[in-house]
Every structure is written in C-alpha cells, then in structure tokens.
Amino acid sequence: MDKLEGLPQWSSSIEKTWEESGFGSFTTVQEKAIPFIYKGGDVLGEAPTGSGKTLAYLLPLLEKVDPSVKRTQVMILASSHELVMQIHQEVLKWTQGSGIVSTPLIGGANIKRQIEKLKKKPAVIVGTPGRIHELMERKKVKAHEIQTIVMDEADQLLVTEHLPTVESILDAMQKERQILLFSATLPEEVIDVAQTFMNPEAEVIQVESEEKKPNVDHVYIRCSDREKVELLRKLAYVEGFKGLAFMQDIAKLNVFAEKLTYRNLDLGLLHSDAKKEQRQKAVKEFRQGAYDLLLATDVAARGLDILDITFIVNMDVPKDESSYIHRAGRTARIGATDGVVVSLVNPVEEKRLKKYARDIDFPLTEVEIYKGKLVNKK
Fold first, then answer.
1. Domains delineated in the chain
2. Is the pTM of this model over 0.70?
C-alpha cells in the first residue's frame, strides 16, 4: 500500500484489507484528498462515479478514529437508504479487527433498535439527514461531540428538500469541525451553498473523467509591461469573456485594478491581503455575474472553483510550471465550454512560456486582438 506524504504508516487492518482487495496504487481523487483530510482540512471533492471517492474520505478518517474514545467521532450523511447501507458496508469492511464500531441510521427502520445501537457509542454513524436529525432531537445523537461530517453525493443533500435539515445538523455541531463534501457533480449553486458553512480555505479537488476532458487553447500576446493594462481592458470586452487574471505581485495588482476601474471597467479583487469577507464577496459577485473579470494572486485563488470561467489571463508568466498548470486548470471545467489561457508576455516571459509549452507539451499560438476578437497573428 502506497505511503502518502504527511501520513504515518497505515494501520494493519487497513493494510490487510487493501491487500485482500487486490488494489494497486491510489486513484487520483484518493491521492489528492487523503493528505488534506488527514490533516483536518475541509475538502470539496468532485470526481466521476467509480473513481474511488468513498475510500478517499474513509481511509484517512478511519486512520484517525480512536476506538478507545467512547463517543461518535465521524458522521456521514447520504441522501438515500441504499447509499447509506453501501457506505456502512465499506466502513465494516475497512474496520475489521480495529475495534471501530459503525452504525447505519435510516428512516423507515426501527428507531428503538437504532437507539439501542447508539448506546454502544459507535465511533462512526452513517445515515440519512432526516433520521439523524430526529435522533439528535431525542438527544441520542450528540452532534456537538462530533469532529467530522461527510456529505456523500453532496449535490443530492444540498437541495431545497434536505437543506434545512442539513443546516440544523451543522448548527448543532462544534464550530471547529471538519466538513467534507464529495460528489460526482458539484453544480455552481451547490458550491455556493457549501461555501456559506465551509472554511473559506477549503481545498477544492476536481478530477475529470478522460472522456470529458475539456479543451483549453494556450495563446500569447507579445507586449511591453506598460501595455498590459490596456490589453487586459480590451480582452475584457472580447465576446464570451468571463475571466480570471493572475498576477504574482499584490502591489501591482492593486495598481492595475485602480487603472482599470478608472477606465470604467467593473472587476473584482482577490488577494491574500484582503479580508475574508471581502474575498468571499468578490467571488460571490463574480459567480453571480456582477462583473466578468476577477483579478487574483495565485495564493488567493487556490481552491477557487467557478465552473463557467472562459478565460485565464496571465498578466505575468509564473515562475514555475506547476503554477502555470494550476492557473490554466481554472478554465474549461467539465461540461463547460472550451477555455482560453492568454499570456501577456514581454521578451523574457515569452522564452519562459515557450519552455513550459515544450516541457508540458501543449500547442502555443501567438494572437492579437482584432475587432474585439482574438485572431491568429500569422
């Protein structure tokens, strides 16, 4: 079984089950999510069906559960009886010989029997929101003692039907809790709801299925540094533009924002010096279409997931390839239209960008803005 950075050796019960299951290496969603979850961070994960989402949250949580502590430590919510029982079976499978007790709690089943099982202080409970809420009201589930809540198939839970119940469960939990949301699809409205109760620094993990891999065009415009503000202003008026413009320097970012605002361009600002409320407001208004341009630094935009971004603009070419890939990954999400990554480059940056294109292996085209459109320079 693979060792992931930042995690201790896996427990013998998990190692044994992994070997018996015949698994090889971790799937992409597991590799990305497990370290964050183990460290206690909030995670919003979108990955296709069959990509290993359940184990992505179960393995690190079960590794952290202390069976000697006689109280519930993990609560897993699912929208259907079938999914609850499916998850519960997985918990049973991966906790054999560990001393960890799990209990399923679904509506329609005998509630007295469930209350009897809760008297054994299971470390993990898996249930539907309605039944868990009912047991909370009867003081049989003590939400304030639970450290971690998982919402499996979150897009089914954060709908009008379940939302008041889910919010009531969250309100009863301690403030310093860990929230994990996983789903095959996370529509923008679901992300909006989730961000009202999750840590603003929550890690957004999105794993695409190969057949749905989006198209991204990588293009560049040659210019001097002083021309970049005007080029960004013109790009903002290109048809279909909804863009995230990146810069590394906060001071420069503020100067650019002032110049663009002076030229009557509506935009939002997202950088690490801004207060949490300001950042949340900027992202929310951008999502809602109050403006089509968000100026951001790499750090502030980490974890940001907005599904309909059509343009990424590199106001400067980042100093390393991974930052370029991270920026580019913000456009052309699953089910979205094709995206464009535009780099505004001086001669030094042009050389760096062309090196990235060779190393990462993506086609790169020189373009110019002509009559409100991006056209091939040649």
1. 12-208 (3.40.50.300), 214-376 (3.40.50.300)
2. no
